Amino acid sequence: MLLTERSAVALIPLEPMHAWVCQLEAECAFSLEALQREPNVYLVPSVENDAGLAELLPQFAEALFVKELEAWSSDEAGYPPRDPETFARWFRLVRYSRVFDAVPDDPLFDDSEVLHAR
What we know:
By secondary structure, this protein is an alpha+beta fold. The chain has one domain. Helices cover 42% and strands 20% of the residues. The protein has helices at residues 15-23, 32-37, 50-70, 84-90, 111-117, and strands at 2-3, 6-13, 40-45, 91-96, 100-101. The strands form two sheets. It has a three-stranded antiparallel beta sheet with strand order 3-2-4. A two-stranded antiparallel ribbon has the order 1-5. The longest helix is centred in the middle third of the chain and has 21 residues, at 50-70.
């Protein structure tokens, strides 16, 4: 197994996210607990502690917020403000500083994909 040069951050939805998801449908099909059981996890540059994550977050918060909203709706007009304060009310972050690749023979990206992504 290879230790990656990334940390992982799980975005745990809080009640405002749940309320927003529920208002998108006539009948809310998901409980807050159901949303929290399967949070999205994002790879970010390596950070050793929560202070490091707090320093890094401004670079990624809006993109992460939009990705979470896009999972439920493509109507940007219905999105809430995507500012740091709203983000903090809508998500609890769980940081994982040691991320291992358990499948080293099957890389996440091949060289051609990495070159095209830059």
